[in-house]
Amino acid sequence: MSEQRAGFVARAVEWLRAGYPDGVPRRDYVALLGLLRRKLTEAEIRQIARALAEQSQQSTNPITTADIETMISGTVLQQATPEDTVRVAAHLAAGGWPLADPPAD
């Protein structure tokens, strides 16, 4: 991973931690990781997921890295409801995450 890309991932983790100061709610992970897939590589998603799992350990309903790996590896990311996706997308957009797909060439 390039230094620039690594810096972007670090900023994304910081931004997500600020946007979810109490940790990402368990019900939001499926939609969140699905939305991040639009902009990030699998390795970047896994790096962010590990960081969020670490933050989650302080919450009342922690999620483990293994839980997140199961979501990433399985088909579960395809199962986010439209309501989940809209809720999480709105949360991400409010914080400035670039949700729009880049224009086609």
Q: What is the helix/strand order? A: HHHHH
Number of H/I helices: 5
Shape field: globular
How many beta-strand runs?
0
- Provide the low-confidence segments as ranges: none
Question: Which structural class matches the secondary elements?
Answer: mainly alpha
Roughly how many Å apart are the termini?
25 Å
Under CATH, the homologous superfamily reads DUF3349, helical bundle
Give a quick account of the main beta sheet: strands, pairing sense, barrel closure: none
Known CATH architecture: Orthogonal Bundle
Mean pLDDT: 76
Rg (C-alpha, Å): 13 Å
Overall number of structural domains: 1
Features:
105 residues, mainly alpha, DNA polymerase, domain 1, 5 helices, 0% strand, globular
Describe what this molecule looks like in 3D.
With 105 residues, the chain is an all-alpha fold. The chain has a single domain, classed as DNA polymerase, domain 1, CATH 1.10.150.430. It is built from five helices and no strands. The chain has helices at residues 3-19, 29-36, 42-56, 65-73, 82-94. Helix 1 (3-19) runs parallel beside helix 3 and helix 3 packs antiparallel against helix 4. It is globular and about 35 Å long. The relative contact order is 0.18.
Secondary-structure blueprint of this entry?
Layout: H1 3-19, H2 29-36, H3 42-56, H4 65-73, H5 82-94
Helix pairs in contact: 1-3, 2-5, 3-4
Summarize the structure in short.
It contains five helices and no strands.
